[in-house]
Specification:
458 residues; alpha/beta; Rossmann fold; Helicase, Ruva Protein, domain 3; Zinc Finger, Delta Prime, domain 3; 4 domains; binds zinc ion
Length: 458
């Protein structure tokens, strides 16, 4: 028997099998169960996440002669014909290559004939956004009032390009990228069933590389098996897909958060020499800090379902090094980097510079900290020490450019060493409260000085 690729062999056959799209499958199942199926559906979402698969399951479920609840049996003649693409009543059309008005007229001519073997005549039009304006217009009238036995299922990667008049006649569903842990789970199941001996970290690497697409994940797994056989390690997966290992990613994030510039530069050099995909690294690092941020807010709610158990363990350690504000600023820097990489002449240089900037963000003194320190100092002063003897530690004044709160990239190191005395011996009144602190000459001076330093170091 000819080898069947994994993506095809393990294509979901029932609604239950579909991974990560429960918001869609639940609605469709309910519609079938309550016999309230609309006449047109639009599935929107990135490639490889199951739009066509879902369309076929839906078509089978509507037509299956031996349905099990709302799930198609997959065995009857109707189900088999749809699976093989031979059904006369479930017609799959590629919108990209049949996008002219004549193509649509061809479809409309057929629509007037009742289905031959099935209950419903179902048109699945993939990449529907590729239809020409005239083709869309030709379709409109029928879409509004199709014969009772006709159903349309449209799929597209670009929902915004489908005419609003078409969208408004459909029930629209947005399919999501599949969360990495879900892909990991499914890959593990498939590998076990196929007798493939694969390390957990290798599965994780494949899932990361798939960016939320199950089909890509299975194609990558196939490719890896062709390359290495049935025994697969993380090393193999990383080498084939140009990815950086999970541990290296943890180390890089820790170096950024600790402000360890030397470690950052050494790691970037190592990744670059090993031929890692540097653009990919940027995207992954951005996701990494995003997940860390979500973890810092939600904790055990599994970082929005996007982080695996191992990642969560790393996050617990990293969260001790920083606060959410800094992580947010780092994520912002990385997202800007992703934009700029498209036009970069030297990807590596740009990544180095950005990571150093991130590291400085991670170790900068925030306005809150300055406030806290000054408040502490006030406490000491109010405790009875003569104000004239307490020199307020101030950095040397630098011209203020803008308030620090408006600049995302706060990068100055803590100015503990230069506790200058310029204007340090000022009277501090004894009132409490942060608002009043702002009005104190000594604090004003401190903040201005910090602003100048922070901004000018950017
Ligand atoms: Zn069936």
């Amino acid at each position: 028997m000819a080898y069947e690729v994994l993506a095809r062999k393990w294509r979901p056959k029932t609604f239950d099998d579909v991974v990560g799209q429960t918001h869609v499958t639940t609605t469709l199942r309910n519609a079938i169960a309550s016999d309230r199926v609309a006449h047109a559906y639009l599935f929107v979402g990135p490639r490889g996440i199951g739009k066509t698969t879902l369309s076929r399951i839906f078509a089978k479920s509507l037509n299956c002669t031996n349905r099990n609840g709302v799930e198609p049996c997959g065995e009857c003649e109707v189900c088999r014909a749809i699976t093989d693409g031979h059904s006369l009543d479930v017609i799959e059309i590629d919108g990209a290559s049949n996008n002219k008005v004549d193509d649509v007229h061809g479809i409309l001519d057929q629509i007037q004939f009742a289905p031959t073997t099935c209950k419903f005549k179902i048109y699945i039009i993939d990449e529907v956004h590729m239809l020409s304006q005239a083709a869309f217009n030709a379709l409109l009238k029928t879409l509004e009032e199709p014969p009772p036995y006709v159903k349309f299922i449209f799929a597209t990667t670009e929902g915004d390009k489908v005419l609003p008049t078409i969208v408004s006649r459909c029930q629209r569903f947005d399919l999501r990228r599949i969360a990495t842990p879900m892909i990991v789970k499914r890959l593990r199941r498939i590998c076990d069933a196929e007798g493939i001996d694969i390390e957990d970290d290798a599965i994780f690497a494949i899932a990361r590389g798939a960016e939320g697409g199950m089909r890509d994940a299975l194609s990558s797994l196939d490719q890896l098996i062709s390359f290495k056989g049935n025994k697969l390690t993380e090393e193999d997966a990383l080498a084939v897909f140009g990815l950086v290992s999970r541990h290296a990613m943890d180390d890089l994030a820790a170096a950024v958060l600790k402000g360890d510039m030397a470690a950052i530069l050494r790691m970037v050099d190592r990744f670059d020499s090993a031929g890692k995909d540097m653009r990919r690294l940027t995207v992954e690092l951005m996701d990494y800090f995003r997940n860390l941020l979500v973890y810092m807010y939600l904790g055990d709610e599994k970082a929005g379902g996007d982080a695996t158990e191992e990642q969560l363990r790393s996050f617990t350690e990293l969260a001790k090094l920083t606060d959410s504000n800094r992580v947010l600023k780092i994520a912002e820097q990385l997202s800007e980097l992703e934009e700029r990489l498209r036009f970069a002449l030297s990807v590596r240089t740009l990544i180095e510079m950005t990571l150093i900037r991130c590291a400085r963000v991670a170790t900068a003194v925030s306005l809150d900290e300055v406030l806290r320190r000054v408040t502490e100092l006030r406490g000491t002063l109010s405790a009875g020490q003569p104000a004239s003897k307490a020199a307020v530690p101030l950095p040397s004044p630098v011209p203020a450019v803008a308030p620090v709160t408006e600049k995302p990239a706060a990068v100055a190191p803590a100015p503990q060493s230069d506790a200058a005395t310029s204007g340090g011996e000022q009277e501090v009144n004894r009132s409490n409260g942060v608002a009043e602190l702002y009005n104190e000459p000594v604090l004003k001076h401190t903040l201005e000085a910090f602003n100048g330093r922070v901004v000018s170091a950017d």
